[in-house]
Amino acid sequence: MKTGLVIYTSSIEKLAIFYAHVFDLQMIESDHSYALLVGGDFELVLLETEVSKKGLNVFEARENTALKPTFFVDVPFELISERIKEKGGVVFPPKNWTFGGRQVCDAHDCEGNIFQLRVGIRGG
């Protein structure tokens, strides 16, 4: 099954650069109102609307949301953390437990959208 995620943004360009850099996603298409990034069986759509431009504060993590996207990465925690920080995101300290055979931590992108990282090769 192919999966995807839609994120509303106040700056398509800034958020597209963030996700492309951190997760090696490729920009497939874009215009002034959206961007489509793809990696494997995952699609990320970024939408810029007047409401999202007015309602987003880029300096504040938005923890009060009903969803938390999860990204599974098979690279060292230090590398993925550095990628996130290079593009204006924040990584919280890794939790002291694993889930599904992976180290777990939370982070947020350069606009404050919280996401979870599950780092490491499952079963190894």
Give an overview of the whole structure.
With 124 residues, the chain is of the alpha+beta class. It has 2 domains: 1-53, Signal recognition particle alu RNA binding heterodimer, srp9/1, CATH 3.30.720.120; 60-124, 2,3-Dihydroxybiphenyl 1,2-Dioxygenase, domain 1 (Roll). Helices cover 23% and strands 37% of the residues. It contains 3 helices and 9 strands, in the order βαβββαβαββββ. Strands 5, 6, 7, 8 and 9 form a 5-stranded mixed β-sheet that branches. Strands 1-4-3-2 form a 4-stranded mixed β-sheet. Strand 2 and strand 3 form a beta hairpin. The mean pLDDT is 87.
* Tally of domains: 2
CATH homologous superfamily designation of the largest domain: 2,3-Dihydroxybiphenyl 1,2-Dioxygenase, domain 1
CATH class of the largest domain: Alpha Beta
The percent range for strand residues is: 35-45%
Rg (C-alpha, Å): 14 Å
* Helix percentage: 10-25%
Beta strands, count: 9
The H/E string reads EHEEEHEHEEEE
Shape: globular
The largest sheet is: 5 strands, mixed
Q: Per CATH, what is the topology of the largest domain?
A: 2,3-Dihydroxybiphenyl 1,2-Dioxygenase, domain 1
CATH architecture of the largest domain: Roll
Return the structural class.
alpha+beta
Low-confidence parts lasting 5 or more residues at pLDDT below 50? Answer: none
State the end-to-end distance: 24 Å
The overall average pLDDT, rounded, is 87
